[in-house]
Amino acid sequence: MEFNTSTGGGMPPNPYAPHFSPATATTTSASTFSPDAPPFAPSPGPHAPPFAPSPVPHAPQQPQHHPEIFVDGHVPILDGSFNGSGDYGHNSSGFEEGFHPSDPNGQHHSGQHQDQHGIMHSGRGISNPPVGNEEYHELHTIVADGGDRYGVSAVAFDLHQELLWMGNQGGHVTSYYGPGMQKYSSFQPLPVGTEMRQVLSIDNGVLLLGNNRMRCSERGGLTIFDFSGEDMHDMQVMTLVDPTTLLIGGHQDKVIEFDLNSGQQVNLLEVGDPGVAIFRHTNRFICCGDTSGQVTLRDMNTFKVEHILKAHSGSLSDFDVHGNLLVTAGFSTRRGSLAVDRFLMIYDLRVMRAMAPMQLSIDPMFLRFVPTYTPRIVAVSQAGQFQILDLAGVMTPASMAIHQLNTHGHMCMGFDISTSCEAFSFGDNGGLLHLWTDREEVLYNNYSHPTEFADHPEHLPAMSIVDPLTPLASIPMLYENCHGPLLSDWPEDCMKYVKRRMPPIDPEILASMKVVQFIGYAPNPRVKKRNQVPYRAKDLAITIPATSPGATSTVPESPGARGESPRWYMVPKRYRKVEIKYTKLGVDSFDFRHYNRTNFAGLETNIPNSYCNAMLQVLYFIEPLRCAAQSHLCEKEFCLTCELGFLFHMLDMSKGENCQASNFLRAFRTIPEASALGLVLGDQEEATGKVNLGRLIQSWNRFIVQQVHQDIQEPKEEDSEKKEGEETEPPKEVEKTPIEKMFSSEVTISSKCRCGKETTKETNSMVYGLNYPDISDSEIKKKQYAFTEVLKSSMSSEQVTHAWCEDCNRYQPTTQSRKLKSLPDILAINCHLDSERDLLFWKTQEEKMPNFVPWDQIMKQKEENSSKASSSQTRTVRPCRYGSHCTRSDCKFSHGPQDKEQTPCRYGDMCTRADCKFSHRSTAEKQQATVLSSAEILEMSLQEEAQAHWLPCGLKMALSDGELKIEGLPEMEDVEKEKLSEEWAVYELTSSVCHVQESRLGGNLVAHIKAGIPYHKRKEGITATQWYLVNDFAIAPMDKLDAVQFGMAWKVPCVLYFSRKDLNKRHDCQIHNPISEKVLFPEASLSSRVLKRHITFQPLAAEEMPKEGDLVALDAEFVTLNQEEAELHSDGTRSTIKPSHMSVARITVIRGQGPQEGTPFIDDYISTQEQVVDYLTKFSGIKPGDLDANISSKHLTTLKSTYLKLRYLIDKGVKMVGHGLKKDFRVINLFVPKDQIVDTVLLFHLTNKRMMSLRFLAWYFLKLRIQSDTHDSIEDARTALQLHKKFKQLKDEQEPDEFHKTLRKMYEEGRKVGWKPPDE
């Protein structure tokens, strides 16, 4: 049976559509434009979406040929008129520009041909250029795998990699890589003949949905898990609610909740008839569309119905959600049959009301938002036509144009848009896959993970028979069954055995070697293969003839050096990536003071996303920003500015001790914008070291400045009354935030069309990116640019681009210019050295500086000096310990004068004692010293390189009649001498963040920071300024020139901060502590099921408010978020690679004195949004559900709320009593001064002895048995308080020796009972 459609093709009935009588299907008049009277009947194909109605057999047949359709897939609208009968009006000439009347079909034939499938080919494959001013054009059309037998049923862009997925009606899946659509993988996840309903990508694979089963596969095709069951029937759609929770729905009354971690069904949700055909979700609702034409909005947590939107009277074809807008397309019931609505129904989710519908010229079947600068949506019909509509109501030629796919009469069955909005993909039931883009070089995602490709087979290198330098290990071994002599078996009389001389030690090893007694230890640079010694061409004096006649070439000394440049550079030790070595005691046994001998605090690296440590330190050393962050406090649970203030407070209080940014990074992972920008990394991404840290930290810098500004900014009531998309200037009376005052500069952007119309727009810029000259490599090497030229062109740029002109009513070349109206106090610059050309530009500018010494030349000289030093170095004869009284005749030591004046000082040249009686080298002796250590040679090399730097140490900036003037101050002395004036603003370089590129470890980020006078006065008690190299928890003073010179071979600049010299005078540098006693007042629990009888604490009364010196007892319980990663060695030893990630789950604080001594006034269970892998119930007493706000009966609070309570107690000077408080405060991420900590584990401890458990101490001293079944924090805190009293009693009653004996008896008793209380 044939059915007429809008394209005239024959279509079989849809097996998934609702059943109704085809004889009653009719079409409404095309002249009626209302939601209830759509102009055209539906025309789905044989494999239309399961919610589409059946085809209309008696609809009037549409014309099969459109003379207006060009070969590039565009339908020109010549004069913008529509006559209501399905035809578009023509202009007076009847032809558009580029349309040839000689061609009856209106097609161009230049350079094109048709293949056997009827697909039009052009010079670059199956692609066509755009017509006129259209934004999107066809890039490729290919025949998908199995396209000759099955049509395409699902298409989807990969959300994590540059892949396009296609599933067909035969259950086959194929992925294509990049805009070239190179086939990446192809496999059969479903039985042959089973239609693929949906393809959904996740982080580690792809989810594939069929009628009655769902499979999770790797991108290469390997199966991860397969799911089917009695509830899996007639499934249509699935969606990810969070990274681990999947919802699966279909034409049934239940929705399956599926856990991706366990691979099992966890819940079955009732939805009622007619089920769910479409899933979309926002941050508030899960939107479910069904075949009855309505959209149901359900709660994200409870899945309860919140609102029902009755969009269409017939059925629903598709809908999409973006922000506060929901747009639907569907069918209406007219005269007992279904007809396509040529109106898009639009709803505002803020007020749950319908807006004015939008009329279309096509039959919409698929809808997708294009979230760009305006709310645009793409509507696609099954005939292969689509429109890009602006929901703001702006009519442009782009929004009026109708694009046409080259479907060759087939029906469009799938449609998707990439997350970057640069590409559209379509699939039809003819087996064709179409890719449309708005540019030639397209990216599917803004930040994609690298795609893993198969390794190419390694072929054995060709070896000449006369080549004596190729190692024999490169020749494969013979089979064992091969008998007889080998060709290499020389007779004995032709051989002579000699010992090979030991090769000299690599200078890189000597530079990093540490001598302990007489043994040297150094890391292996891994520049040579193991157990192989290369032949030396110099020793053999062999020269291999070159390929060209008469030419000679020396073979490299090492076979590993062939085909690659020698590795002359080396990353200095202080710049290398530092890692924490874990033992069975965890991180406590690691010596952080070895890496940081200053009083400034470093940041640890064992936390996810700790790559931003360098930028956190940069922000901390900006005095006004530090004060503004510590003065901020809001009620938002995950506020980055609040957490930044808490972190800065810890860095202030610490005197050289290490700190963690765990709470800040915990809040950072919950920010949706950070995840959308790709700033939140997974464990696997950080472990592999393949992340572009330079690009990542620049995006993080731009994000954090804007985020802190938004956090501090007070909400404006006017904003809620403005319509979406309306651009209005903020009221002038609103005071700027501290971030805006420091970083922001007012910029005027003017756009001038060539017709003379000019428009201006005012905006603010907080972070500037460097734009380098767009010139060729040869021009880069010819001309020398100053840094100030590049900076000026980046801040006040001018470019020509195509933009829409209202007067010309079309796109015109427009000149856009940026002019600064004000200068920022802090100039934040992203270097944007992302391409090889930009790196070459910076490197070339440095090389053009005077006194520049190339890096490879420096390292060559270093090696030569090192080899000379090792050959000429003589052993120093140490003086004999017995001096002139020595009686040994064979004594090898010196017996010269042994007076103190000849004895060298143990501090050497670093001695500062004026009355030192030991000998020191004079200046002349230092100059005459010819033997240099490798460390001295390296330092000399670095000093030589530091003589030339392209980046100035300071800047002078001024605005004169809207024109920006910038002058560079090359040296630090120039900045210090420059005087302040009203005309010129003087800036000095205060910090720079660099990417240290090291291939073996993936590189790391370091910061050069200039610590000002306020920081040294607080930390060191002196008035000085000093530059420091901050490498996570390693902090060391450095030379000021290291901040401006970059070798570019291993150190690449990423972020630069220039600050005004009078910055601290222009801003408030006082901290206004926002934490008051109100934080201790009673608060409501997050759990709605908590009852009054379940309250386990009594809040403090007004007269009980803590004072300095008061005593409280504290205990905390924890849960595990990530298990420990350890490595077991062949000798049986075990080493920790990554410690377990703990999170605080319960905090209890009890009164330490007064009539209610021992009564808790804080007993908070901490709610967490992260997945808990182990509740540690035996040791914590926390059970599953205690931390869930929906089912918990405990007093549940946020970590921030309880953190503020502890901060207030510490700021008041309250003393904390507890057992093992060091670990508790570390996990809570709270710094407590040592004089406020009373730890019972240290009170009853002898030096070099084990630490005693609280359970054993309670049994031994208090005769109490605690922790019998599980731990209870109230019981543990009370026990610690009683032990503290027992300690004071013993100290008062006993002498120090007697107390020492008491502890020894305790240890003896503990050894007898196995350190545990004996069983009753």
TrEMBL record:
Composition-biased stretches (Pro residues): 36-60
Pfam families on file: PAN2_N, RNase_T, UCH_1
Localization terms from the record: Cytoplasm, P-body; Nucleus
Cofactor binding note: Binds 2 metal cations per subunit in the catalytic exonuclease domain.
Keywords: Cytoplasm, Exonuclease, Hydrolase, Metal-binding, mRNA processing, Nuclease, Nucleus
Entry keyword Ion transport: no
Main location: cytoplasm
Named cofactor requirement(s): a divalent metal cation
Binding-site positions, a divalent metal cation: 1115, 1117, 1224, 1276
Annotated EC: 3.1.13.4
Ranges of residues in domain USP: 601-1061
Region (Disordered) location: 1-133, 711-738
GO molecular function: metal ion binding; nucleic acid binding; poly(A)-specific ribonuclease activity
A single BP term in Gene Ontology: mRNA processing
Annotated control of activity: Positively regulated by the regulatory subunit PAN3.
One Gene Ontology cellular component: P-body
Catalysed transformations (reactions): Exonucleolytic cleavage of poly(A) to 5'-AMP
Low complexity: compositionally biased ranges: 17-35
PANTHER family, sorted: DEADENYLATION COMPLEX CATALYTIC SUBUNIT PAN2 (PTHR15728), PAN2-PAN3 DEADENYLATION COMPLEX CATALYTIC SUBUNIT PAN2 (PTHR15728:SF0)
Record remark on domains: Contains a pseudo-UCH domain. This ubiquitin C-terminal hydrolase (UCH)-like or ubiquitin specific protease (USP)-like domain is predicted to be catalytically inactive because it lacks the active site catalytic triad characteristic of thiol proteases, with residues at the equivalent structural positions that are incompatible with catalysis, and it cannot bind ubiquitin. It functions as a structural scaffold for intra- and intermolecular interactions in the complex. The linker, or PAN3 interaction domain (PID), between the WD40 repeats and the pseudo-UCH domain mediates interaction with PAN3.
Family, similarity comment: Belongs to the peptidase C19 family. PAN2 subfamily.
Subunit (UniProt): Forms a heterotrimer with an asymmetric homodimer of the regulatory subunit PAN3 to form the poly(A)-nuclease (PAN) deadenylation complex.
Protein role: Catalytic subunit of the poly(A)-nuclease (PAN) deadenylation complex, one of two cytoplasmic mRNA deadenylases involved in general and miRNA-mediated mRNA turnover. PAN specifically shortens poly(A) tails of RNA and the activity is stimulated by poly(A)-binding protein (PABP). PAN deadenylation is followed by rapid degradation of the shortened mRNA tails by the CCR4-NOT complex.
Name of this chain's protein: PAN2-PAN3 deadenylation complex catalytic subunit PAN2
Organism: Branchiostoma belcheri
Phylogenetic placement of the source organism: Eukaryota, Metazoa, Chordata, Cephalochordata, Leptocardii
